[in-house]
Design a protein that fits this description.
This protein is about 30% helix and about 35% strand. It is of the alpha+beta class and about 160 residues long. It has a domain at about 35-125: Sandwich (Immunoglobulin-like), CATH 2.60.40. The chain has a four-stranded antiparallel beta sheet, with no helix packed on it. The longest helix has 26 residues, at about 135-160. It starts with a helix and ends with a helix.
Length: about 160
């Protein structure tokens, strides 16, 4: 049997429409170019930090609020921590929050009005792998005492043997 030409033409048209829609989606301006905000947050130790990019040509203030999630199935709730930024459109601004006093959280988010950042797991806020060094002011007296103890033990052995 020979295939019908109408069905062949229909699938080719559908493919062209799909490709056209894909290109239109790629060419559409992003939310930040249209005047939206984009927040990226990360955590290290007790510090939740990141950047907020403000799109468009606006000059205003932006209130960033820290939200916390206290369980796998719970919703994000406000923590009372916020930061007010004076912003101009088309720029990025850094932010920092000390979240050391927040306990029992499983995740964090930094939300400007009408938007929210990525979710930051609380496990990523653990201290880094660096071990702090003991200060020289502590090591010097300990080493002098250790050396003195070794010399005293050596002298006792000599006196006991001789």
């Amino acid at each position: 049997m020979k295939p019908q030409p109408a069905a062949k033409t229909l699938s080719a048209v559908a493919r062209l429409v799909g490709i056209g829609l894909a290109f239109a989606a790629l060419a559409a301006p992003s939310a930040s170019a249209q005047g939206g905000t984009h927040v990226v947050a990360h955590c290290a130790g007790d510090i939740l930090s990141g950047t907020v990019h403000v799109g468009g040509a606006m000059h205003s203030t932006l209130d960033l609020a820290v939200l916390a999630k206290h369980g796998q199935r719970s919703n994000f709730t406000t923590t009372g921590m916020s930061q007010l930024l004076n912003v101009d459109g088309g720029r990025s601004y850094p932010f920092r929050f000390n979240i050391g006093r927040l306990t029992g959280s499983t995740a964090y988010r930094v939300d400007p009005p009408g938007d929210h950042s990525n979710t930051v797991p609380a496990s990523s806020c653990a201290p880094g792998q660096q071990v702090p060094e003991a200060p020289l002011s502590l090591l010097l007296p300990v080493s002098v005492l250790g050396l003195g103890g070794l010399l005293a033990a050596r002298n006792r052995r000599r006196n006991a043997a001789g």
